[in-house]
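Same chain as my last thread, 617 residues:
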Amino acid sequence: MLFPSPRRWNHWISLVTPYGVAGILLWGLSSSGIGENLNLLLYDASIQVRKAPSGIDTPIRLIGINEADIRRYRWPINDRQLTAGLQILRAAGATAIGLDIYRDTGSAELRQEFKQNPKLVAIFNAAEAIPAPPGTRPEQQAFNDLVLDGDGVLRRDLVHVDGQPPAYLALPLRLWEKAQSNQQLRSTFKNPQLQSRWLTPGSGGYRQVDAAGRQRMLSFLQPGSFPIWNLSSLLDNKIPKADLKGKIILIGSVAPSLRDDFNTPHTRFSGAAQLATMPGVEVHAHRLAALIRLGHGNHYQMDVLPAFTETIALALITAAGIAIGEGIKALRRSGWILLSGELLLLAIGFGLLLQGIWIGISIPMTTLALITAAGWLRRGAAGQLQRRQIERLLGQTTSPEVAAELWKQRESLLEEGRFPGRELAVTILFADIVGFSQVAEGFQPAETLQWVNAGMEKFVQVIHNNGGMVNKFTGDGFLAVFGVPLAQNPTLTANQALDSAAALQHTLLELNQQLLAENRPAMKLRVGLHSGEVITGSMGSSDRMEYAVIGDVVNVSSRLESLNKERQVNLCRVLLSKETLNLLTNPEQWQFNCWGSFPLKGREQSVEVYELTGINN
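reply #2:
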């Protein structure tokens, strides 16, 4: 068979479609940036909870130009005051000084201080094309560009850009090298142990962030914990020299009016403001502190896992979602397991953040939810299809109990919308209305149908009540089967069939009382019972299909029903074979009349026949 059948195509389409929709939704969520925003929200929350070390334990000190300094010295600060402060710091023994103030037109005094103090570093801004003070040596220049996320929050640090001119070095890295008197500290970035710490476009909770250069997540220390003095205290010699000696000094503005501040994750959830701001000079202090910790192997860092780990995690989570959605049949239980899985993923993601490892948790959580939901949808669609298939194959010919059990086992019973051929031990009950032709001759067709249906409605209910299935109607009769479509104990099916035959006798008495009261003819039945093996399964084409029961047992029961038609003395004659009689649990509770052995049409072997005549009290 070169191509799958349309039925198999439909099966695969129904299987794949819910998961395809889930994949499209996941792609849309990832592309829209919603997933990344949720990851960033969780990241910021972890920053709030994670206990950060204090900046006071670092060799970093700040000189912040505040509002009082601006009122005293005006803005921009005169080069004479800046130069005086720089000279004080040089005399105090500062190991490196970063001037985080733009001075693209520096005075002669300031230029001279840069010449005399090789530990002094000036800034320029590459993005906005703001140059360093004229005449500053390349090894005393550094860029102070910062990278912001799409929501305007500063979380990443551009540590270094490889292959750039000597002046193109980040301010923290330049200060670190000045303090260590080592111009090649950046070479340590090539250490294989550090390679996994550099960001890529899809690192952590990012989806497609611009990760050019060597970037990593900025591990903030406690905000406001770096020792800070204002410019007036420095120029008035109010700062103890011991607090400056051997320290890395950063000079910059902290006055709110100068608007040199940035949004950070630290107090994002505070009631006062949506996002907290941090002065740029303090941001550089955090960057420098993180760089120092990186060089010293300190473990307080914020790292990301390699990109392939997310691929592996998504594969495992997808498998888990399929297992929850497809494997757990009880929807309520499946829902609770899904909720537990989501909480577990959230706890894992947040717990790793607290340990300094950031992974994107929104896509895995969404994947688990959508894949599980796809499994539910597929099962629901498959269930509806299977229900229609069962209804199409069996109609309403089974009892509610059999139908419920059949529904439980539907996946193991149905193959491509069909019941495959199975050999089952059954008991067949064949019933026929006596004298149907004479009655039909005296009635209009509609009246005849109404008369027949009055009996069939009660007869079918009797079969259902005793666990049987009405397999087909023969116009003036019906064929009922006990022991299908689910395999059952042959003894049970024989007892059920005989119970049904006895119930038909009693039901016929009640029915005839009703018919006579309505001035309609009384009804008589002939019933034949036989037990044995049959082949069951779906028969027909895609346009017309029915549940077929094939075998000698069907023929024998039909022959028993029509055997010696003239030999009937009651309203409902029940004949059964010796094979059925031998299967009865308590044959002594019944009254039988042995008719003897009869050859049946189309059959070589004779059948020993018994008539049910009553019940022993």
